[in-house]
Amino acid sequence: MRAVVLDAPGPVAALHIRELPIPTPEPGQVLIRVQAFGLNRSELHTRLGLAEGVTFPRVLGIEATGVVVDSPGGEFEPGQQVMAMMGGMGRVFDGGYAEYTCVPVAQVIPFHSELDWPTLGAVPEMLQTAYGSLTVGLDGQPGQSILIRGGTSSVGMATAILAKQRGMTVLSTTRNPAKAAALTKVGVDHVVIDDGAVAARVREILGDGVDTALELVGTPTLPDTLRATKVHGTVCFTGMLSNEWIVEKFYPTGYIPNGVRLTSYGGDASDLPAAVLQDFLDAVAAGTATVPVDRVFAMDEIRAAHAYMEEGRAAGKLVVVP
């Protein structure tokens, strides 16, 4: 099989396409023929040497979408459509940047859909993170407002879509005014141009601040996001598009505004129920939800795809078809 291998952290030139043996699954594992896989900041962190616990050489990819080839334990049928994510994929063991991937059964979610593979390939980690952040991290409720900091990321756009399905008022940020249309297209009510300090603008729109806020940029913008949130509102720290996720010399009383709640979310495949995945795919097929795909690449374009991601040029998900 062809696979994208990283021998050690480095620039995009460190990504190499190689011929590797197709993995042989053992009981408790599933061999999947990969039809599409999404790109994630997690893989960028691994390539840049920012991720912990990674051994090299490694086939990257914390997610993959395709069909079952073999499931020795009988958990899945050959030919069954599945998505796989997390659990050490692309870090502890070889991941989804390949024509085949072998993963633990617990990381696999079945589904049925006639959507095209690039669309399906964009969904797993994006939906898992957006759904978990909105439900577990924020407990978002109908009628509430939400600020999405880092709104043109794939998770940011997916969260906006899910929030609008729940009847929430959505404010979403972008540093690039040219990307504003992409946000309104997925239902964002108020686009806020992010110059690093948006709390005042948010309070011009909603005087007391937002009920909930999703922090996807990282620790550089987190204090401002907290200031944009009302008393008894909740901020969920999920992403780090800035590649910064540590708060130095953290003093809670001076850092967190009075009465504002700060939570976090980091999920796994088990945090995305199969019924939620299927309902979302059915909604996309019915035209009542969308999958924000920015661009689809071939595997031979993996270096260009990583450069595109690293430069922050996307508005939505980047997908690769092997």
From TrEMBL:
Residue ranges of domain Enoyl reductase (ER) in the record: 10-320
MF GO annotations: NADPH binding; oxidoreductase activity, acting on NAD(P)H
Entry superkingdom: Bacteria
InterPro entries: ADH-like_N, ER, GroES-like_sf, NAD(P)-bd_dom_sf
A Pfam short name: ADH_N
The keyword NADP belongs to this UniProt entry's keyword annotation: yes
Alphabetically ordered keywords of this record: NADP, Oxidoreductase
Protein name (Swiss-Prot/TrEMBL): Zinc-binding dehydrogenase
